[in-house]
Amino acid sequence: MPRTLLAAFGVGLVAALAALGMRASIEASYRDVEIVLDGPDWEALAIREGADPLAYFARAREHGATAVAVYEQTLKRLAEKGKAAYIGGGQLVSHSRIEPLAAPFRDLVAGGAARSGMLYIAAPPELLEFLQTGFGEVLGAAQVRRTFGLLEVPGLLEELEEAPLGYMPQDLAPYVRLGLRPVLRLRNYPGIAAGGLRAKVARLARLGRGYPVVFDKTEVLGYAGLIPETAAALRSAGFPYGRIEVFSVRRKQRGEDQLAAQMRPNVIRLFSLTAEELLALTPASVRDKFVLAARERNIRILYLRPILPTAGNVGTQTNLMLLDQMVGDLTRFGLRPGPARALPEIRIPPVLMLLVILGALAAMALSLMLLGRAVGIVVSTRFAWTLVGIGIAVSLLTMTSGPWALWRKLLALGTASAVPVVAIAVASPHAGVRPMIASLRTLWVASVISLAGGVLVAALLSGWEFMMAADVFLGVKLAHLLPAILVGVVLATADRPPRHWREGVAQLWAWSSRPLLFRYAAAALVVGLAAVILVARSGNFGLPVLPVEERLRTLTGDLLVARPRTKEYLIGHPALMLAAAAAAVGWRLAVAPLAAVGAIGQAGIINSFSHIHTPLLYTAWRTGNALVLGSILATAGLAVARVGWALVSRPDRSSRRRP
Prior knowledge:
By secondary structure, this protein is α/β, with parallel strands linked by helices. The chain is about 60% helix and about 10% strand. The chain folds into 3 domains: about 5-20 and about 345-645, no CATH class; about 30-70 and about 165-335, Divalent-metal-dependent TIM barrel enzymes (TIM Barrel, Alpha-Beta Barrel), CATH 3.20.20; about 80-160, no CATH class. It contains 27 helices and 12 strands. Strand 9 (about 240-245), helix 12 (about 255-265) and strand 10 (about 265-270) form a beta-alpha-beta unit. It is elongated. The protein starts with a helix and ends in a 10-residue tail after the last helix.
């Protein structure tokens, strides 16, 4: 390998470490986690058990809760509390024919002013003023008027009774007095105009500043045409946006990507479990999911709905114990329960980023040279440096006036695909070395090189949008599968590389003309199925985790603090050690297939660092755990295999006895 390219790779690695040092300092100060109670659900739990809701919230505050989610007032909610009454105009006339009406409604009908298609609301004067303001914001002030002491609002009953009307000061004051920060649950209304939206948020700002905003239902406020106005109004009011983390497209709120981009950096990531999900989980599983979200994914708002009481399980005490355990776990892992804040911007100097890109391009060039040798195409050092120069030029162009984030994602994908090939090629042992030593050396040398590739990828993607999961690594499935294919190609021709690409094609054609044995067909079927599972399991939207794997994850997470990745310590690392042992004893046919599986572990190391929303310290810890655990498991397996082979190959003494 050309020393100049290796030196460029080293320069890029040093620059990447410097960039990650800047990121680590921000992550170290970003440790406050807000535990938010869903107001209506916790209030309903208290009422169900005959307790005073405010007293229950006070107890929850003592057990570690820091905030409470308060929903906007709606006409339906006010009517359920006996504060307002409403009825449609047509229905009002019908009722007047069969029963006496209350005074305001009676006067309206008697005056012949009741109109179909209108909703009429009766309430005390101060509440009626609040309702007129709220409906004026979502419908337009000209659409709402007073008549006969009632409020007349045009529209359909089903829409109007659920229309978001804002907050009254007394909605938030009791929680503030308890020391719980209000979190505003706002809801979009399709017919709201820009002026009404600005007036709505301005009225919310008079309640206080700094309250996180979390949107209710399926879309953000202002979707679809007023999202810029929503972002500007929220920024002006000092309200950060609490963005809900989702693992299925179905749960994603419409307009959230656009709003998050325009609210930058005033965004806080939020994790919650739906009521349906809570029913299927134990309290211990609920706690683990919330704590893991805060530790692994920069989640800083934990939105907690109560676990509903079941037979033999008292709801209040169970939920307070859950709070205690969550707070204890968060504190044990260095997180602080308290008011959440937005993640500040991370600004890496352009020169430093260009040096990181130089290292990434050098890694890709080295991999290209190895691949060219394997297929009979000579890639000269001059040509490799020409490609690196073109990459630097494209980087300069995109940095100034182009898709800078997309280019960095492409570079990260190329690095993640190329470095495992270089790592395994460099670490591959020669025949004649002791198998156990060769196995451990190969795994650790390759993993150190892959770790360097992971550092480059992490530096390439270190930015606010990636740390907040507003943008993600590109091609995660390809980055898992491509290294295995490339490693198999490189090692398959390592002993006798073709002198020309035509020779490589001829060898492939000759190989394809051989009869297909059943054992090879079965092996190909198993490999294909494994590849499909690998691709389907990678990324956030794939095959679900099996129950046994879920238990294994929980066990390793509890024992090792940072949960190692299964595909690394249980599949990739042992396979790479087996490949090295096979090479050491001269079983050449087994080397390439085992090394290809081993590339899964090396790709997994880099993939861990591509999860930019995971803190660096946690990623490094889990990578080390997987490496140590994989080494132990593979060493034990090799020792057992060695003993078994010795027993099988031992001569049978009984067969040599004389009759």
